[in-house]
UniProtKB/TrEMBL annotation:
Stored InterPro entries: Acyl-CoA_DS (IPR015876), FA_desaturase_dom (IPR005804)
Protein's name according to its UniProt entry: Fatty acid desaturase domain-containing protein
An annotated GO cellular component: endoplasmic reticulum membrane
Membrane-topology descriptor: Multi-pass membrane protein
Alphabetized GO MF terms: iron ion binding; stearoyl-CoA 9-desaturase activity
Length: 405
């Protein structure tokens, strides 16, 4: 009875604060799984019914899935302690650490975050561009410093997240609310569907990658040396910072900050924002996540075109990772970048967008019988926003000139 009351109060507070968006998955109780399972297995169950007894297709006789949330207390208390340590680290960062230590912490945070966004995400998980070996080695090194589990697990989880987005087979299913998709998924036993479907994710390319497999084999020792010891020992040796500050500032505060920014892509960028490209999925465009997450918050676009190296429609707008990849390309270290053309984007927006796109509204004209291609006329200024297009045009000009001269 008391729990019911607490639950109702919390649920009401959540409703008031976050509207229809969940913060915690209290509302569903133990039965939330049934709800999400519908999305994933509705068609399967219907087909099965049809096959068995010629029964009517639909939701009749759907199997009952009972999932009980099992908290893993070791992880839960562990994350609590890590966050308290990180808060203390933030206090030390602001009050007692040396200026060089502050700069060093920011450098390690930045470099390791870029290794996650450019390396683990855009290079390894989605294969959006190709690069030479030392860039790859550098990114694997940086991803180890970020301490977000080994690449192999990171990539498998993320590929699974894209394949089964926001269903029960998604490791950080955002339909279970902000908290679950942010950090809660690391504090409970995995849903059986996550385990089941996870085994079927194609990882053959990673299994053939010597860097990723070396990191997987020696992950614990590599984590201890690169994510923990290296960041705290460098300030101690080179400019006499205390190891105490090194541990709390350069290790804990830095690691947990980058982790939380990464998690925001799974939580906030699936809940708070608009959907100009694909309206029937949860991921959204979130400018704040993009600002602090090095360009990974344009998430409706990213889930619409996961193979686009920009992970956003406009490469340059709050998208530091794209800028870095382009810089690497200028230097000749990166090549074969894949990206969606304006025509592809327009087609997707007009077919499946929510109507909030800056240029291509979903044509209401369509109802009047006009073709979507007619409804959206080409606009020079819009095309100019595509710096990619702009640049390829420039390149063509240069090539022309060179040929003439
Ligand atoms: Zn996502
Ligand atoms: Zn992705």
């Amino acid at each position: 009875m008391r729990y019911r009351l607490i639950y109702t109060l919390l649920a009401t507070a959540q409703e008031l604060l976050f509207g229809k968006k969940l913060f915690f998955d209290w509302q569903f109780g133990d039965n939330w799984a049934l709800k999400s399972m519908d999305i994933l297995d509705r068609d399967l169950a219907a087909a099965e019914n049809d096959r068995k007894d010629g029964g009517s297709p639909g939701t009749k006789d759907q199997p009952e899935y009972v999932y009980r949330r099992q908290i893993v207390w070791f992880n839960t208390i562990g994350f609590l302690v890590l966050h308290l340590g990180a808060l203390y680290g933030m206090y030390l960062f602001l009050t007692s650490s040396m200026v060089l230590t502050m700069l060093w912490t920011m450098l390690v945070a930045g470099a390791s975050a870029f290794s996650v966004t450019m390396g683990a995400h855009r290079l390894y998980t989605h294969r959006t561009f190709k690069c030479n070996d030392w860039v790859k080695a550098l990114l694997v090194f940086g991803q180890t410093v970020a301490g977000q589990n080994c690449l192999y697990v990171w990539i498998r989880d993320h590929r699974q997240h894209h394949k089964y987005s926001d269903t029960v087979a998604d490791p950080h299913n955002a339909s279970r609310g902000f908290f679950f998709s942010h950090i809660g998924w690391l504090m409970v036993r995995k849903h059986p569907e996550v385990i089941e479907k996870g085994k079927k994710i194609d990882m053959t390319d990673i299994e053939m990658d010597p860097y990723a497999m070396f990191q997987k084999k020696y992950y614990k020792i590599l984590f201890t040396i690169l994510a923990m010891l290296m960041p705290m020992v460098v300030p101690f040796v080179f400019w006499g910072e205390t190891l105490w500050n090194g541990f709390f500032v350069c290790f804990l505060f830095r690691l947990m900050t980058v982790l939380n920014l990464t998690w925001l892509v799974n939580s906030a960028a699936h809940l708070y924002g608009n959907k100009p490209f694909t309206n029937d999925i949860m991921p959204v465009e979130n400018v704040y996540v993009s600002m602090f997450g090095l360009g990974e918050g344009w998430h409706n676009y990213h889930h619409s075109f996961p193979w686009d190296y920009r992970a956003a429609e406009f490469g340059q707008y709050f998208n530091l990772t794209t800028m870095l990849i382009d810089f690497f390309e200028e230097m000749g270290w990166v090549w074969d970048k894949k990206y969606a053309t304006p025509a592809m984007v327009r087609s997707r927006v007009t077919k499946r967008g929510d109507g909030t796109h800056c240029k291509y509204a979903r044509p209401q004209l369509k109802e009047a019988g006009a073709e979507s291609s007619e409804a959206v006329e080409d606009d020079e200024t819009y095309e100019e926003l595509f710096w990619l297009e702009e640049r390829s045009a420039k390149t063509a000009e240069l090539v022309d000139e060179a040929q003439k001269g």
